[in-house]
Structures are given as structure tokens and as C-alpha cells.
Write a structure and sequence with these properties.
By secondary structure, the protein is α/β, with parallel strands linked by helices. The protein folds into 2 domains: 6-175 and 357-373, Glycogen Phosphorylase B (Rossmann fold, 3-Layer(aba) Sandwich); 183-355, Rossmann fold, CATH 3.40.50. The chain has helices at residues 14-31, 45-51, 67-84, 94-107, 119-123, 127-141, 151-160, 208-221, 243-252, 265-269, 285-292, 305-308, 323-334, 338-355, 358-373, and strands at 6-13, 34-40, 54-57, 88-92, 110-115, 145-148, 168-170, 195-199, 226-230, 256-257, 273-276, 296-300, 315-318. The strands form 2 sheets. Strands 3-2-1-4-5-6-7 form a 7-stranded parallel beta sheet, sandwiched between helices.
């Protein structure tokens, strides 16, 4: 009997919970679960309460390493979990996955840790990254089950912490609402400027510079081509560009900044290709959204991206950190016959519907919660 069972979700920000897991939360509530959310309040928590979830703000910092502050945050998490008395806890992102599974074990509560990507701590070297990795692996070891969003992350975690092998599995992303992300809801893109769009936080390790440099190379060959970036600055991230750095990039290279939006569909519909030259991903939502809207994809051949992009089928994969090869792939798309371009777009939509639809992911959550609660 699930009615009244209490599920608590912990993430770094309220926006992240709503954007990536709103569909899951809505369906769990519809199933009869009581759902509470814990995250840093970034002004987006009202979306969660509108869905019917309770919300508690705790000042989780994604990148802060002040020991006293982190101890204080752990204390607040413990206090809140004791108050909420959950039947199951689900944690997302680096900091919650580092702390929450351990706290759940102390409280005798089953915990699912969802690794949304290994990111900075596994891309960079140095003491700070080593410490973040170590704390994360300890936390994950305390979870009852661990999901990664791609096979590369699962394999790397098992190599670094073999004890995880019995509890880790791969979930195909966090679900995309293919009915909502459907280009048929918008006017068909007319001819004109061929537009490449990059949708990402403005981080160096998302490949922002490679995109800008490639744009300059392609522009020299195809003067009518257009290059756009959609996404927010992330000053709290160690890899984040400052406002001044990004402003200079937009001056030095032929890219147009579109800012941020709560609904990316119209902008995707006005583009031709979605580009993500990232150094590492979980499973990139931007690529899934664009593919669901029948857009050709160009991404780097790295963890996460290669789970979405099939080279030559729905787009092209290129090595990371190479603006030359990225530019070559962009030119290759522009040179495709219209018939081949149409097939790639249809393949993109089909693959998302078959492998990443939100209904499938909801089924996985229902299955694991049933297992935990029996």
C-alpha cells in the first residue's frame, strides 16, 4: 500500500528539482505518495509547491568547501530528515549524494542516490577535486541503490569504489516529455540562415570557447550561418565564465547570446542544429529536448553525450576540446542533402521517444519505490 508513504527528494536547487524531475514529482503525487523536497531556494520553489509537494529551503552550496559551513549544512539536513520522517529518500547532484545517503543510513531509511553527472570533481585534478570525489564515494557507498545516467559514469565509479558494483545501475536519463517537446506544436522553420544553437550553463567545461571558435571558422566558409548561445552564467561553479569573460567572447566571436528562458521550445524550433561540445555529462537534457523536437545534434564523444548522439544517425560526434573538428562537423551538416537532413531529424525524435521518454523513467521510479517499501 503506497498511499501516504513519504518520499523526500534532496537536490542542490529548487530549479533543478522542478526542471529535471517535475514530471516524476507530479506522477508520484498522483500515485498517492506524499512528496517533500529539500533544496537551496533559488526563487523557483513555488513550482514545486504548485505540483503539490512540500518544500524546505536549506542553503546547499554546489561548490563551497568551507568545512564549518558544510558541517552546518549536514546538521540542517539531518534535523530536517528527522522532522519529516521519510519512508524513502532520493538524492541528486554531488553535494546531496555526498551527505544524504549517510544520513539516511543513520536514520534507517532507504536511499536512492541518482548521479546526474560526475562533472568538475572528475574532470579536474588537484586537492579540491580529490576531496570532492572522496566524500562523494563515501556517500554513495551508504546508499541502498545508486543510479547513474550513463554507462561511463557507472564504470568509473565501480573502478574507484568496487563496493558499489552490487548496487549501481544505469537509468536512461531523467525523462523527457516528448508530447511537450514536439516541434509540430510550432510553425515549421522556414529557409534562411542556418542556425546552430548551444544550450548550456556558461561553463568552460561545457565547451563554450570551442563553440565560439568553431563558429568563427564556419562563418568564414558560410557567411550566412548563425550561432546562438542560450543559458545562464554560473558564477558559483569553479568552471564558470565571469560576466566580463563572456561579454568579451561575444565581442571576439560571431555568437549571439539569447539569455535565459523558462521555455526553450520556441528557440529550439527556430534553430537547425543543437551543439554541445561538453567535456563530460550525465545525460544532457538540452540534447534530449532538441532531439525530441527533431533537431540534428552535434556533441563531443564523451560520457553522457555519446548515450544520446549516434554518429551519422541523428547527428555527429567529435572529440572534445577541438574547435577544428567541431567546425568540420558543423560544415558537414550544412552540406547534407535535404533528404539526409530530414532522416537525421526523424531519427533524433524516434530515438528519444523509444529510449528516454518520461513515462519510461516514471516506471523505473515506481519499480524501485515498490522494492524499497515492500
Amino acid at each position: 500500500m503506497i498511499k501516504g508513504k513519504h518520499i523526500v527528494l534532496v537536490c542542490n536547487t529548487a530549479q533543478s528539482l522542478f526542471k529535471f524531475r517535475g514530471y516524476i514529482i507530479k506522477n508520484l503525487i498522483a500515485d498517492g505518495y506524499k512528496v517533500s523536497c529539500i533544496a537551496a531556494d533559488d526563487g523557483e520553489s513555488h513550482h514545486l509547491t504548485d505540483l503539490g509537494a512540500a518544500f524546505t529551503a536549506i542553503p546547499l552550496s554546489r561548490s563551497g568547501m568551507n568545512p564549518l559551513r558544510e558541517i552546518y549544512v549536514v546538521f540542517l539536513l539531518l534535523k530536517e530528515l528527522m522532522r519529516l520522517k521519510p519512508d524513502v529518500v532520493i538524492s541528486y547532484t554531488i553535494k546531496p549524494n555526498s551527505y544524504v545517503p549517510l544520513l539516511a543510513r543513520v536514520l534507517g531509511v532507504s536511499c536512492l542516490a541518482v548521479v546526474t553527472g560526475l562533472g568538475y570533481a572528475f574532470i579536474q585534478g588537484g586537492l579540491r577535486a580529490w576531496l570532492a570525489r572522496t566524500v562523494l564515494l563515501v556517500g554513495l557507498s551508504c546508499a541502498r541503490r545508486v543510479w547513474t545516467l550513463n554507462r561511463d559514469d557507472a564504470e568509473e565509479l565501480i573502478v574507484r569504489a568496487p563496493q558499489l558494483s552490487s548496487k549501481i545501475s544505469v537509468a536512461p536519463g531523467e525523462g523527457i516529455d516528448t508530447d511537450y517537446f514536439d516541434d509540430r506544436l510550432f510553425p515549421a522553420k522556414e529557409g534562411g540562415r542556418f542556425t546552430f544553437m548551444m544550450i548550456a550553463r556558461l561553463l568552460k567545461d561545457k565547451g563554450v570557447y570551442e563553440f565560439a571558435q568553431a563558429a568563427q571558422k564556419v562563418k568564414a566558409q558560410y557567411p550566412d550561418s548563425c550561432f546562438q548561445i542560450l543559458g545562464a552564467l554560473d558564477p558559483g561553479n569553479p568552471a564558470g565564465l565571469s560576466a566580463r569573460e563572456f561579454e568579451k567572447l561575444c565581442i571576439d566571436y560571431p555568437v549571439t547570446y539569447l539569455g535565459v528562458t523558462s521555455d526553450v521550445r520556441k528557440m529550439i524550433a527556430e534553430s537547425d542544429v543543437c551543439v554541445l561540445p561538453s567535456y563530460r555529462e550525465g545525460v544532457p537534457l538540452a540534447l534530449l529536448e532538441a532531439a525530441s523536437m527533431r533537431r540534428v545534434l552535434i556533441a563531443t564523444d564523451v560520457a553522457g553525450c555519446r548515450d544520446v548522439v549516434k554518429d551519422g544517425v541523428n547527428g555527429f560526434l567529435v572529440p572534445p576540446r577541438s574547435s577544428d573538428l567541431l567546425a568540420k562537423a558543423m560544415c558537414a551538416v550544412m552540406a547534407l542533402p535535404s533528404g539526409d537532413l530530414y532522416v537525421m531529424k526523424e531519427n533524433a525524435r524516434r530515438d528519444v521517444c523509444e529510449g528516454f521518454a518520461a513515462q519510461q523513467i516514471t516506471g523505473l521510479y515506481r519499480s524501485i519505490l515498490k522494492d524499497f517499501l515492500e
